[in-house]
Amino acid sequence: QICLSLVKLLFYLAHSPLGSIVLLDFQPRQFVMVDGNLKVTDMDDASTEELSCKEDNDCTLDFPTKSFPLKCSALGKCEGINEKKNLFNAYRYFFTYLLPHSAPPALRPFLSDILNATGDLRYGINDTLNAFEKVLHLYKSGLYLQKRPLLLKDYISLKGFRMAEGEGYKCWPSYSHLGCLLSVHSAEEAAAICNSQSQCQSFIVTQRRTWTGRPLASFQTSSTDLIPDANAVVYIKRSASSGEKL
Fold this sequence. Notes:
alpha+beta, Transferase(Phosphotransferase), domain 1, Hepatocyte Growth Factor, 2 domains, two-stranded antiparallel ribbon
């Protein structure tokens, strides 16, 4: 969410009515999240000036660990230097820390492609935004789950019940530090997650939703303490239910 919001912001800066805007003091502390969107807190260090040049050799974009040769345009300006400076800063301050973590395994290759392409400045801001929106579509639609074995058949569903609090275990990356609360596309994906975790014996798909509209599922170590709840469904491993009295 943070990276996509940042890319949308940089897309606007690259195509602003004032021209391509560069953030000269590009640091994480210069941004805040407001209602799920990333905002710049200080525009004092923003500029529409692009580096003047006479030849391509005048257009090297330097960072502490990398340098990128750019073209000198017929107008005597280094082509796209503001856009590329913003994008590489997004890569080194945000993408490298956030993109490799917590995505479903099937989506990680797409995020690695974005990471590598922005790190080498092979992608401009348009390509980067398109790549992020493709990943978001796959994530929200559940298309990344195709051709997976159906595991929900290994669970008994009990409608009208939820599990008592306090029977959870901790997992990563959980939406709650008190237990294992993960985003899922469906109960089928939740069953696959439960199967992959040795502690998990049951789960419930809650009414809570993430920013993408995906429900949160709570995974538990026990299936014995059930509480009536007309809006809930508990899924219990058949192997667990055979050894416990429900």
